[in-house]
Amino acid sequence: MIENIRKYTGLMVVVLVLLFVGLVFLDGGISKAFNGKPVMEVGDQSISEKEFNRQRALMQLPSVLPTAIEIPENSRLLAKHYLGETFMEGPIPKTPSFIVQIMAEYLQPSLAEPERFIANRINIQKGGIEFGVTPSNDEVENFVETVLFTDTNGNFDQEAYTNFTKSRLSNIGGIPGFNNYIRDLLTAQNLSKVLGGGISTEKDTERELFDIQKQEISGSKITLESGVYEGRVKPTEEQIRAYYEENMQNYNSDELRKITYVSIEPDWDKALEKSKEAKAKAEAEEAERLKKAEEAKKKAEEAAR
User: Which domain holds residue 173?
Assistant: First the structure.
């Protein structure tokens, strides 16, 4: 057998090469051969089970990002570019995890629907290319370092980033998979601004909304004891009548109706007792009748003998 292997080594190499070429160029390529049958299709894209599971794992990513500290002011400037000034100035703590959760709403309305998540990502990727709003690699890395992994001084936290990539990214495609996910989130925000730019509002409405969002309201409370003024203020009858007529609606009550009714109900216990007595009497009379009929029958039979 070894001799045959040596003899046909060249032929075996050719066969292996042909098999490899067949896997690559026939029936979807080598990736399809090793990834198995697709579990879903979006447009002209087939999603293998391996890719489906990787995408589903990505949906958990917002909840595992840092939640301990809020991003500093210089990081918020970049976040405002994508999320808007109104959101970033709200009262909710702006942690990296919360920011990504808000951005991910375009992609994953529910963790129970990975199919929608995958379809949304593909559509957003196509939309980003069509409208030219897909962030570059530098933009993605800048967002990751400046917003998601920054210390309290606004500097890139290399240690936190390294620990995160080592412990959290193994099942989602590593750093490239993470960066592509963030790229899709940023693309979705860019698309929302482009598509929303076609909707215009009146300047007065915009100014009023801006004033409401920016206004600061302060107030104070003064308590007046009524007992202090009792006896000091003595309105005349004319003043009382005039005040009443001006505020008459405050003293009106809802319309009322007066209804008189009589509730009649028999004495059920007495009626039941009377019914039992009547039934017992009827049964006794029937028994007496049957007894007399039987006696009459016997007398007739004796007379006939």
Answer: 42-48+53-194
